[in-house]
Amino acid sequence: MSAIELLKEILKVSEKAANIARVCRADDHLFKLLVQEKAPEESNSRFEHDFKTLADCLIQEAVKYDIGKRFPALRDNIRGEENPKFTNAAGESTVVTVTEDRNETVENIAKVLNDDKVAAERLVEEVYREIELDWEQWQVPIGEAATLDQEIDQLGIWIDPIDATAEYVRAQDKGTKYPNIMASGLKVVTVLIGVFEFAHGTPIMGVVNQPFAEEPETGRYEGKIFWGITIGDLKFNNIQAVDTDERIAVLSPSEQSKYVEFLKNQLKYEIVCSSGAGYKILKVATGEAELFLLSKGTTYKWDTCGPQAILRSLDGDLFDLQNTLINKSLKKISYQDRKIIRNVGGLIAYRNIEKFKDFLKL
Length: 362
Prior knowledge:
By secondary structure, this protein is of the alpha+beta class. It is built from 11 helices and 17 strands. This is Inositol polyphosphate 1-phosphatase.
């Protein structure tokens, strides 16, 4: 099967996801309806407040529906972050689903919105909207005969419908001294979709969509899409590398001081703190940062599969930090054991793996 055809479908569903995210932010009334706090057992302990939004769930289910419709053998291999079960103000529980029947989907969403049919219709309009992308704009190699090495049912997909959900909710933009790297705000929000092969757990295709990358007019946003593929020795991506003379390490604001001090004092990195795991890995892929390090096991497979695939298409990769430090050898993040959903050993990402080997010599 053609890898490019699968890529095109994933690019389209990522843009549908981005559209839903933008619509939900554009309407204050709608956005207030959508926000629900996550149950304690679902929360990511690193955040003081972690939100579950209907936008998250709806994006996840819409992606599953569209990809499953186009590639039925993939339908049951698509996994995401969000629990689609919602309880509304009346105490009624419903599972958010997208079906062939548009009216059924509207009724389903309306239950979550306490029978607000206007809001439900607006959301569902985006779910069923046909997406057209300019393949030339996003540098998709239409003429390339890139064939997947695996049968389609031997592939899995991880989705993070809205990475940096807390930033999506708060929308408090804060920059850093580097204009292309944001500390927080809507620009760090990403839609992450990664394809991996079951046999070895290796990411082979990834898409990172930034729904709020640019704001040409106040309150009107345009997105950017980044992608990468690795199939055997074939590597394709649309990354336009940024050359910088500075050594930049992008970290979480909550990173442990011993790692911050080591990177700053021993390795002479400029330290930049930013939110969103997907966003930080993307900055390494684009060359705007040299490394991303996270010492805590606070990310999940849905956070990393898509961005890691892009890194691999650039001869970089994403590694298990603690495992690598203990063994003094490179231990890549893998998706082979589908029971493991958390990256318990932390992360370190490099685009230039030779520089990572220098890191290990210290």
